[in-house]
Write a structure and sequence with these properties.
Helix content: 10-25%
Number of domains: 1
Structural class: alpha+beta
Radius of gyration: 29 Å
Distance between the termini: 91 Å
Length: 154
Amino acid sequence: MRNKVMIVTLLLATVLAACGAPSAPSTVPTAPPKPAPTMLPSALPTTPPSVLPTEAAPGKLVTRPTAGEWKNAPDAAVNAAADLAQRLKIDINTIKLVGTQEIDWPDACLGIQQPDVMCAQVITSGYKVILEANGKQYEYHTNNSGSAVRLVDG
């Protein structure tokens, strides 16, 4: 008899535990907002806008870009501008940021195919960066951090 009481008590406790009050609905955690990218201070235009004569169009004046143009630019854009300044042997302050776009590249070569170069077929997050210097636009493909920047040969 004692065993029957024990079994009934255990079954009753199990049923009551299973039928207890529902737990609070779980909430899905949301990702924290992306922090604003930091920029390399040495690469930011620091001088106020100034007027420079251009050799291509006598009498026509061009202005240097202001630091505000680069305010929200990702590090990838700043690194691309540094690369372009080095390639063209020009002052980085004369390079204009036309735009950036976040892109998932289809491979580790950032979507730029080169003969005899094999690329890992892995989606690589990054940016398409458009810069302007000396009246010409340049397209760069970068990875997310900007540690890899590649000029697209047009």
